[in-house]
Design a protein that fits this description.
Layout: E1 2-6, H1 13-16, H2 21-24, E2 30-33, H3 35-38, H4 43-52, E3 58-62, H5 80-90, H6 92-97, E4 100-106, H7 115-128, E5 133-136, H8 148-158, E6 161-166, E7 186-191, H9 196-199, H10 209-213, H11 220-233, E8 239-244, H12 252-263, H13 272-275
């Protein structure tokens, strides 16, 4: 099974017919939320999202930045245990509703392949218990010759879902597309675009980096190539979740719709308020 979604429901209002999660969920069956990356969200936020989406809708939730080494400045939590406990408590509504696809641990470009960082991954996996967790690297050292197979074997052994990336090949701070599922149930594919010059640029202002990095629209040939990639991945994993993150120019929505068309996927979700009419 292949499911396609976007990395935000708010940034694509013009392409999916509304800026609310309920409207979004009538077009795509999954979404990635990164608000949890910037702060551990109140439980009420997740409950609201549960209530606004159809029963079979799924969320990819980004891990809090303090859990992946992105945090700069003071950590608002007393220690790592308190931080993980707060995050796990916050997502309970998604778990109870069966709407948590996975928690995505996307590590920074400076998180390279070292013994210390391997130990950090083991610590994180232990803290997350049996929850579905996806792992995405941003440092090339994990997939260089001589390390690629060892990295994939480690992920399989430890139970990590592979977050496969389509992104610019722009040096050590980017990773190649490695079409290898590491979990029998789930595989994540994140489409970051192929804007090579924008990948390493921080923009004119610090807060403009995202607008530069993810400004890219996949063409028909590139999407057709991914259609074949996804069909191949399906043979080794039960479900493939594809997230378009090329959202700077509102390209993610149209690209997601076009990929669904190429794959022959028809999806029309209904908001929970409409479902009771047919009970």
């Amino acid at each position: 099974m292949i499911k396609v979604g976007l990395s935000s429901w708010k940034e694509h209002a013009k392409t999916v017919g509304g800026d609310t999660l309920g409207r979004y969920s009538s077009h795509f069956p999954i979404v990635e939320s990164e608000s949890s990356f910037y702060a551990v969200q109140p439980t009420r936020n997740y409950q609201k999202w549960v209530d606004e989406t159809p029963p079979d809708f799924g969320f990819v939730i980004k891990a809090y930045q303090g859990m992946t080494g992105h945090l700069r400045g003071n950590n608002p939590f007393e220690n790592a245990t308190a931080m993980f406990d707060a995050f796990l408590a916050s997502i309970v509504p998604l778990l109870q509703a069966g709407k948590l696809k996975m928690v995505l641990f996307q590590y920074p470009p400076w998180f390279d392949c070292t013994r210390q960082n391997v130990d950090a991954l083991r610590y994180t996996k232990e803290k997350m218990g049996d929850l579905p967790v996806a792992l995405e690297f941003r440092h090339q050292s994990w997939f260089v010759a001589g390390m690629r197979e060892r990295t994939l074997q480690f992920m399989e052994r430890e139970g990590w879902i592979h977050s496969i990336c389509d992104e610019p090949q722009a040096g050590v701070g980017s990773v190649p597309t490695v079409l290898h599922p590491t979990h029998p149930d789930l595989t994540l594919v994140r489409m970051h675009g192929r804007n090579v010059s924008g990948w390493t640029s921080q923009g004119r202002e610090r807060d403009e980096w995202r607008e530069v990095r993810y400004l890219y629209r996949y063409n028909g040939e590139e999407l057709a190539e991914w259609k074949e990639n996804l069909r191949a991945l399906e043979k080794s994993t039960q479900e493939v979740c594809v997230i378009f993150n090329n959202n700077s120019g509102r390209d993610a929505g149209p690209n997601g719709k076009e990929l669904m068309r190429l794959l022959g996927i028809e999806y029309r979700g209904e908001a929970p308020g409409q479902l009771h009419l047919f009970d």
